[in-house]
Amino acid sequence: MKNFAEQFKLHDKYQVEMKFTYPASQDSQVNEYTVDTFFFLPTNLGINSETYRKEEFFSDLHEYIRLKTPSVPITGMTGADSPLEKLEQTFADMSAKKPDAVNLYSARLKLFCSIMRSALRDQEILIENSLEQPEASALIRSFLEETASILKSYRELYPKLCIQTIPEDVRELFRHADEFLSIIHNKYLYKLYYAVSKKEQFSECRKQIVTRAEQEIEYRKERNYPSVPDPEGDNEELVYREGTLKKAMASILFLRKETRRDGVLLENILFSIAAGIAMAFATIMAFITQKYIVQDISLVLFMTLVIAYMGKDRIKDWLKLYFSTKLRRFIHDYKTRILGENGEQVGFCRESFSFLKAGDVPREITEIRHKAYLSDLENGCFGEQVILARKQVTVNSKAFHDLIRGYQADGLVDIMRFNFSRFLRHMDNPVKKLFIPDGKGGVMPIDAKRVYHVNIVVRYGMKGLSDSYVKFRIVLSRNGIKRINIFPVVTRETGKQSK
């Protein structure tokens, strides 16, 4: 789907990360997106509607919503109307002690770091994809020169903050950002180094990459930044500071959320109707008994009233269950308001969780799932358990585009991390002993890995456009996630792989 991007990756030993980027089109006042995730689980995992409730599912699901980082190429980080120039413009306002100047400086500084991080990542990927091209070496040299120039220009701004009218915490934030820029600069240098490490034609480039990395480490030592790698140490401080500084700088892009149960008012109205119907039944029973069956207080009247009361409670519970089941088709479990920096609502999302019967799975999803015969044998006796996680996101385009002062926000990034730890409880040991001939007239033991497959199909789309689909497989063992297999994109019409 055009401008609607998705990404799936392994976050850690137990978590898978799904990331969706929702474009915010100015052509319409409201943009609506849907993401339906179907989990196909082997029955022997012991995950079903009796053992795995929606509260547990949403506890295993961690979600973050942030603005899409403004896209600026590495060559556009300095110069006229650049992120660095916009940052420098806040210095004069702070010197003059203008209201909100420090807040604007903090926002621009964090945004500069976030944009720089994305620019480094994008340029490194571009170079990796161009290594077979004749201009690859020139691209690497240009990358090293450009990044060195950007860091130099940034660091030359620090003396402008060293005046009495500017508070110390402003300079402290600048130094933290400086440390962060040095760390992420080296991170992408190392990625680039390993990309060219096995290609002889880049031997000179490798030396230049190492030299730049060493210069940044030496710079951090001179500045007494604690994030200096130690070949003999555990480097705990480096990892901690990198993670903390990354979160601090990216915080400018993250949006606040307020979550509550969805459809509470409608649910209470229907439950009140159920209670009213049940009470009407009990009242009618009492009226009929007293008017037409017995005329005075007796054991028969007493027993009739007791039975009517019992029936009232059962009818109320049955109707509540019936209404609740029907209501789930039209409302979700939770509704989350998406809020801007000043508390203004820029959108909302609704989410729900349910187990599906095989016959309720949409035909196109079943075709995309496309079970192999071996999977049919594995699950044939008991069938698969199917979980559907639904999400509907609505964005107010006008409010959304005004969220970043000085920049145009053009998309929302929805990050979902799902933890599979609960799925491991009923698994067998991860290693099984097998025996094979040893070639010497005997047999020998070998280790074999025992794994389980969780297949996932995601259907996502934007209102007014056709849906897109992606299928991937989580390969699990008792020790956690072993790998993710992502399958080719499939089409809506047939569920077959597109060429």
Assembly level: single chain
Nearest-integer average pLDDT:
83
Strands, count: 14
Strand order of the largest sheet: 5-6-7-8-3-12-13-14
Q: In total, how many domains does the architecture comprise?
A: 3
Q: How does the major sheet shape up? A: 8 strands, antiparallel
Low-confidence stretches: 492-499
Give the helix proportion (percent range).
40-55%
Percentage beta strand = 15-25%
Measured between the Cα atoms of the first and last residue, the distance is 16 Å
Instruction: Count every helix, treating DSSP H or I runs of 4 or more residues as helices.
Output: 12
- Helix and strand element order: EEEHEHHHHHHEHHEEHHEHEEEEEE
Using only CA atoms, what is the Rg? 30 Å
| Helix vs. strand class | alpha+beta
Question: Which term fits the overall shape?
Answer: globular
Explain what you see.
- The chain is of the alpha+beta class.
- The chain has 3 domains: 5-67 and 336-486; 74-254, no CATH class; 263-327, no CATH class.
- The chain has helices at residues 54-60, 83-95, 101-128, 136-155, 168-196, 203-222, 236-250, 264-293, 299-327, 363-369, 373-379, 397-401, and strands at residues 5-10, 15-23, 30-41, 61-67, 256-261, 334-339, 345-356, 385-396, 411-419, 431-437, 443-449, 452-462, 468-477, 480-486.
What are the defining features of this structure?
disordered C terminus; 8-stranded antiparallel beta sheet; 3 domains; 12 helices; 499 residues; 14 strands; alpha+beta; globular; single chain
